[in-house]
Amino acid sequence: NNLNFHLDSYCYSTLALCNVKLIGEDASEIASGVFNLYPNPSNGEFTLQYSGTTGNVVDITIVNTMGQVVYQRKVYEFNGVMEQSFDLGSLGSGIYTLQIHNGNELNNKQFVVTH
Questions:
Q1: Mean pLDDT of the chain
Q2: What is the phi-psi region of residue 76: left when phi exceeds 0, alpha when psi lies from -120 to 50, beta otherwise?
């Protein structure tokens, strides 16, 4: 198994806004994923659409700009496609990052909460 990691040019490993993708033999399976978050900005109510590799436990984490986890959920029976509504209106106004970890894949998307 010969895989390499690719970080977007503006990324450093400690920044939450980085998208990490695998490149190599298994990249065709992993790169087929869809990751949408809308509306953005929102009042804390938004929808996540995600498709990716099946057979893994999918971790969904939301962190604030300080790197503190403000929401976390595991999806144990991931069937390859997910659409989930969030109501996180209790979050303060600011910039947050939603992270999806699925097997060897890690995707991050920033969103803005305004009140």
A1: 78
A2: alpha
